[in-house]
Amino acid sequence: MNRRxxxxxxxxxxxxxxxxxxxxxxxxxxVNRQKTIRIPIMDIKDFPTVIDxxxxxxxxxxxxxxxxxxxHLGCILKFDKNRGIFECPCHGSRFxxxxxxxxxxxxxxxxxxxxxxxxxxxxxxx
Length: 126
What we know:
The chain is of the alpha+beta class. It has two domains: 1-32; 36-125, 3-layer Sandwich (Rieske Iron-sulfur Protein). The chain contains one helix and ten strands. The protein has a four-stranded antiparallel β-sheet with strand order 5-6-7-8, with no helix packed on it. A hairpin with a 4-residue loop joins strand 5 and strand 6 (85-87). The longest helix has 26 residues, at 3-28. The protein starts with a helix and ends with a strand.
């Protein structure tokens, strides 16, 4: 075996190894993987706050949980206590307490999150 054939064999092996690793990683990737977070109920206030990527607050009907990401481009929303609205610091979208858009550029309402309560904690899947 000459040097040229040897180098072809080595490079071919390395390319096959790297390609195989990439394919394996792709097959392992789970698009539907969800992250579950736990929020202690004692940390929840009567006004909206962002905890671990979730807008959460107590109301007379229980708890309200929304995604804290703007539906326009995904920026983290801030709550304006004076006006009682969620506002996007990136592009100015505004949402009311029901998650409905009151000022664009966002067009979709905020995603309301399902949750369960156990042992003094709220469990929510993102």
